[in-house]
Design a protein that fits this description.
Elements (H helix, E strand, L loop, with lengths): L1 H8 L5 H8 L2 H18 L6 H13 L6 H9 L6 H13 L7 H8 L7 H14 L1 H7 L5 H11 L5 H16 L4 H4 L29 H5 L24 H12 L4 E4 L9 H16 L3 E6 L9 H13 L6 E4 L4 H13 L3 E4 L21 H12 L9 E4 L11 E5 L13 E3 L1 H11 L4 E5 L6 H10 L6 E5 L2 E3 L6 H9 L14 H7 L3 H11 L6 E3 L1 H15 L2 E2 L1 E2 L2 E6 L5 E6 L9 E6 L2 E5 L20 E3 L4 E10 L5 E10 L9 E2 L2 E2 L2 E8 L27 E9 L11 E4 L3 E5 L8 E7 L9
Parallel strand pairs: 1-2, 2-3, 8-9, 10-11, 12-25, 14-20, 18-21, 23-27
Antiparallel strand pairs: 4-5, 5-6, 6-7, 13-24, 14-17, 15-16, 17-22, 18-19, 19-20, 23-24, 25-26, 26-27
Helix pairs in contact: 1-2, 3-4, 3-5, 4-5, 6-7, 8-10, 8-11, 10-11, 15-23, 19-20, 23-24
Length: 766
């Protein structure tokens, strides 16, 4: 083993990567052969870094070992020396399975010997710029530059991508000149905007994704996904003698339509990470005129409840997506069982008596029952089905090694728990590793999109479909979306609920989708956030304020204005006849509507908007400084300060004058008159540290990191009567205070508002 590690390290692998490679016996053997062949071609010379990298990438993706020496020769002789050429070479080999390859045809397909000169790049880009010149001049820098890059890369297939991009940028600059102030103006707030840092998309190459909607990111060739029916062209896809027939039948059944699925387990509430998965699965199908299934992976009856089934569908629809069909893994229990019997008959599965604790971890010794006779496994599996073993006593295991080195994953286990949908019909249930790919195959899924941690299961996905000679979809992985200052683990949220730290799964301090809805986050804002994050291959960890920025952008254009006072101070106007004031719902666009509020002798302002002693820089109301009242057209001046028995200011007597008749005040404040009493809940981060689950940051565990100020309840706030008929989840901007949403706890006697997010404005300017 030490010798093999040394050989792998000689081509640039670090020790850990070399040892991981050794876990995959087939890969290790092929890589060793490739290195030996390369050394034979080079003689005393060593393998350079570029060739070594290409060699390793080739071996990990090559599915036909008979072509190993052929490709090794091209890599070592530097005829294939780029990732683009290697991909083309592997594609050519997949689509030309015949024994004798036409070398000239192969070299033409891979760009062998092709040299693209700077002059050719300049000429090709010039033609493309000329083609789009009118639109470029009209739209200037709002033009989608990705179109230029896409056409340039098509015309200059074997050119260096960076050189091509530099040439495109230079010629655009030459045509349009530097960006002007008009070019830099912001687009509509409802359009997704890029964060200050750029997040690169998976599979997108060098296309510019800044400011693109999710649909633009997912449409057509924006992602380097295969076309339906061209599964065999993707890296790692295993081609069998029957593959092309199965793909032909698949296309006949689907008509070449894109098919995806969102497959949650119904044992918890969806969270912000699921929002990315929903947007990606449903969005990719929608962007490409396809369909997406909502499929419940209901294979563990111990943890599934009706409330989770209902809440999951509700949240998918809340985000704006309608499933083509709602299906369940349990719909296929009989077919899955029949396929398991077939798998045993084919010699690819066996009944095993090893206990669960013996199967945990890595380097598990092979099962002593691995070579059990087929007839014996069939008999024992039938006895499992009939309930003749105890839980944990036996399992059905598949004869295969996964990419992470795990050997013979479990396909079926015994659980004597009634199933939510099938009751006591079954006492054996299939695992994820067995069920997922087969349900994808049964539903004719074209693109099985899943998070990165399932990459280690890709080989088992392909293996199982091929072992049963079924249509095999393609699995594509993307990075998870995580947020700081929160936890999303089901187990940990249950702990928070059980300990009384949060009320339930929809507590607005959590980042479950039900909690975000209750707090007042618009679904459009969540979708915009997912679009900004993009479809990244690496795990993405974002800060909550970036999500909140998306929320503000949507609410600024959609939440009507109202006025509310959180800490009231009574003000009596001594020289006013009561009247009414017309207040625009959206001051920046008064055409969108307005509402009327009373304006009587008694109004209420925020305690913080009055100071008895003038301080430097303070612009609001003092005994010596008047202040304006928003929307009312009046300026008030203090005549008398009234205090309670403890010396605290409890009321002001003021006079008012028309704002047209006096000097303009330094500030305008909000107010309410004849208001409704309401409860307001203010939320802050639930945790004190960015990563509450990290022992390095929080040694005592996440429950010790709770922010004691994460919830503030104000029971005697006041709000103007324009919100009196609001419905649950209706949203408002309380001027100068923040964005708020009506909570389900509201009654006809008392409204309850949750603060969704604070205002964007700098408090010092208010």
């Amino acid at each position: 083993m030490a010798d093999m590690v040394s050989i792998f390290m000689s081509i640039g692998l670090n020790e850990q990567k070399a040892k991981e490679t050794l876990k995959n016996e087939a890969l290790s053997s092929t890589l060793k052969k490739a290195i030996e062949q390369a050394r034979g071609l080079l003689g005393s010379a060593s393998i350079d870094k570029t060739a070594a990298t290409m060699l390793y990438n080739m071996v990990t993706r090559l599915k036909d070992p008979t072509r190993l020496s052929f490709l090794t020769e091209y890599i070592i002789t530097r005829k294939i020396n780029s990732e683009l050429q290697l991909s083309a070479a592997l594609d050519f080999i997949k689509s030309h399975p015949q024994e004798n390859l036409d070398r000239l045809e192969f070299e033409a397909a891979c760009g062998v010997g092709v040299v693209v000169t700077p002059e050719q790049i300049e000429d090709a880009v010039e033609l493309i710029i000329r083609k789009h010149k009118d639109q470029l001049l009209a739209e200037r820098y709002r033009f989608n530059m990705g179109i230029l890059m896409g056409e340039a890369r098509t015309a200059l297939k074997w050119a260096d991508g960076k050189i091509v991009k530099n040439e495109v940028d230079m010629q655009v600059l030459h045509l349009l000149g530097p960006k002007t102030e008009a070019d830099l103006e912001k687009k509509s707030n409802l359009e997704p905007k890029p964060f200050l840092h750029k997040i690169c998309l998976l599979f997108v190459g060098e296309a510019n994704t800044e400011g693109k909607s999710l649909m633009e990111q997912l449409r057509g060739e924006a992602l380097k996904f295969h076309k339906p029916g061209e599964n065999y062209k993707t890296e790692g896809y295993v081609v069998t003698p029957n593959t092309m027939n199965l793909l032909k039948k698949h296309l006949e059944e689907t008509g070449g339509q894109v098919r995806t699925r969102f497959p949650p387990e119904p044992n918890g509430i969806l969270h912000i990470g699921h929002a990315k998965a929903i947007n990606f699965n449903f969005g990719y199908a929608k962007a490409n005129n396809g369909i997406c299934f909502l499929r419940y992976d209901d294979t563990n009856p111990e943890k599934e409840e009706e409330k989770y089934f209902t809440a999951i569908k509700e949240m998918v629809e809340w985000l704006g997506y309608k499933p083509y069909a709602v299906t369940h893994a349990s719909d296929q229990f009989q077919l899955l069982y029949d396929l398991a019997v077939d798998l045993i008959r084919r010699g690819h599965a066996y009944v095993c008596h090893q206990r669960g604790e013996e199967l945990k971890g890595h380097n598990i010794p092979p099962s002593p029952w691995r070579e059990r006779p087929v007839e014996e496994s069939l008999l024992l599996f039938d006895r499992m089905r009939k309930g003749m073993f105890a839980e944990g006593e036996v399992t059905l295991r598949m004869k295969m090694v996964m990419e992470d080195g795990k050997m013979d994953p479990v396909a079926y286990r015994i659980k004597y728990t009634p199933h939510h949908r099938t009751g006591d019909t079954w006492c054996i249930y299939p695992t994820y590793d067995y069920t997922h790919c087969l349900c994808d195959s049964i539903e004719n899924i074209t693109h099985s999109l899943c998070t990165k941690e399932f990459q280690a299961r890709r080989s088992s996905y392909f293996w199982l479909c091929n072992a049963l000679d079924l249509y095999c979809p393609v699995q594509w992985e993307y990075g998870r979306l995580n947020l700081t200052y929160t936890v999303v683990s089901k187990r940990k949220i249950i702990k928070l609920v059980e300990t009384g730290i949060v009320r339930d799964w929809d507590d607005p301090r959590l980042f479950t989708l039900t909690a975000l809805r209750r707090r007042g986050f618009p679904p459009q804002a969540i979708n915009n956030f997912c679009a900004r994050v993009g479809v990244t291959v690496a795990q993405t960890t974002m800060e909550p304020h970036l999500l909140e920025a998306c929320v503000r952008e949507v609410l600024n254009d959609t939440a009507p204005r109202a006025m509310a006072i959180l800490e009231p101070l009574k003000v009596t106007i001594t020289n006013l006849c009561p009247n009414k004031v017309l207040i625009p719902d959206f001051p920046a666009n008064e055409a969108k509507g307005s509402h009327v509020v009373p304006f009587s002798k008694t109004i209420f302002i925020e305690q913080s908007d009055f100071r008895e002693v003038m301080e430097k820089g303070y612009k609001r109301l003092t005994p010596d400084q008047p202040v304006g009242l928003r929307h009312a057209g009046y300026v008030i001046s203090v005549q008398r300060v009234i205090k309670d028995g403890c010396g605290k200011v409890c009321e002001l007597e003021v006079t008012c004058a028309s704002s047209d008749s006096v000097e303009k005040p330094k500030a305008f404040i909000h107010w309410v008159s004849d208001p409704l009493r309401c409860e307001v809940r203010l939320y802050e981060s639930l945790f004190l540290h960015k990563n509450p689950e990290d022992p390095a940051e929080v040694p005592a565990g996440f429950l010790s990191d709770i922010n004691p100020n994460s919830l503030t309840v104000i029971g005697s706030a006041l709000v103007d009567r324009s919100v009196g008929k609001a419905k649950v989840f209706d949203k408002f901007q309380f001027e100068r205070v923040g964005y708020f949403s009506l909570d389900p706890d509201s009654t006809s006697e008392k409204l309850v508002f949750n603060r969704t997010v604070t205002l964007k404005e700098d408090p010092g300017k208010i």
